[in-house]
Write a structure and sequence with these properties.
With 327 residues, this protein is mostly helical. The protein is built from 14 helices and no strands.
Length: 327
């Protein structure tokens, strides 16, 4: 039940991020570089406050917990010390920056639903591929569902009047790969809140680098440059809301769900996000639901349902992510 609740809340946060980003960029409230910077800053600040309160609470509860452990020697929970020592990693932080930056730039040329579908299709390929590499066993039905889901993604990208911009699509696919790595690493964290918080705080090291890069002649490659004189209050509010709520708290909840899910399961359920994002885009941005997107969504979500219904047929082997992917 916990896994289901955490996953649903996290998926809503993912869809909200797509909406906030697309809303800010489509309306010209802010540029992609400034949006990314404010998103990282606001997430780091909000999580720093929450972590401070959480640390204070742990210190206050420590005497009571020590008495409880003495009474119950078989208590199988993380200790306060192990929680306080969980400070994320540089690999996760780099993945977070790559994801956030490519995500924002890609959304200058993609609508909400299409961008989310490309993003989470790339996430699926990354996470399921890693799961297979780590010897996660899939049933024949799960393999079929995986192939059908990929086919749905390929169908979306077929040449048509609504085919996404190649540069934007590639950037969003890179963003999905980075998010897949970030999600995989969530399996090894002891404290989802602290791991997410420190990952965002570490990501701030990249802010000056992003600013310098944004001033170069990136428009040659179809990537818009930074426009500091075009930042509005609406853009700042959308970026901060995306960072503090949808990203900071949303990703903390996702890290709470990750240890309860297999890599393959976590990858597939995220494909529900594009539908949520497309619905939000239709409601708040008046975006049209294309036939291509509708067919691709039906195919992918059908594959998701088959995958989940057949999860009991697979062997639940948990890979040691901590040893194989920890910096």
């Amino acid at each position: 039940m916990k896994a289901t609740f955490y996953t649903i809340v996290a998926l809503i946060a993912f869809a909200a991020n797509s909406l906030f980003c697309r809303m800010a960029l489509a309306e010209g409230y802010i540029d992609a570089w400034s949006f990314t910077t404010l998103r990282l800053l606001s997430a780091a600040m909000s999580l720093a406050v929450v972590m401070s309160v959480h640390t204070y609470w742990l210190h206050q509860q420590k005497p009571c917990q020590q008495m409880s452990r003495q009474k119950n020697l078989h208590l199988n929970t993380a200790t306060d010390d192990s929680i306080l020592q969980d400070k994320g990693s540089w690999i996760s932080s780099i993945s977070l920056v790559v994801y956030a930056l490519c995500f924002s730039i890609a959304y200058t040329a993609l609508d909400t639903g299409t961008g989310a579908l490309i993003l989470f299709s790339a996430v699926q390929l990354t996470m399921i591929g890693w799961g297979i590499y780590q010897k996660e066993q899939l049933s024949a039905w799960q393999w079929l569902a995986f192939i059908v889901a990929v086919a749905g993604f390929v169908y979306l990208m077929l040449p048509s009047a609504t085919v996404p911009s190649p540069t934007a699509a590639i950037l969003m696919a890179i963003s999905g790969g980075a998010w897949g790595i970030y999600s995989i690493r969530g399996k090894s964290c002891v404290s989802p809140l602290r791991a997410t918080g420190f990952n965002f705080i570490r990501s701030l090291v990249a802010v000056p680098v992003l600013f310098i890069i944004s001033l170069t002649a990136l428009s040659t490659f179809g990537i818009p440059n930074i426009r500091l004189n075009h930042i509005s209050i609406e853009g700042v509010l959308l970026a901060c809301t995306s960072g503090a709520l949808a990203s900071g708290l949303g990703y903390s909840i996702w890290y709470m769900a990750m240890p309860l899910l297999k890599n393959s399961q976590a990858a597939v359920v995220q494909l529900c996000t594009p539908i949520l994002a497309a619905i939000l885009g239709m409601v708040f941005l008046s975006e049209q639901l294309t036939l291509n997107f509708l067919i691709a969504s039906i195919v992918i979500l059908g594959a998701v349902l088959v995958f989940i219904l057949n999860k009991k047929n697979s062997v639940n082997k948990k890979p040691n992510i901590a040893q194989s992917f920890r910096l």
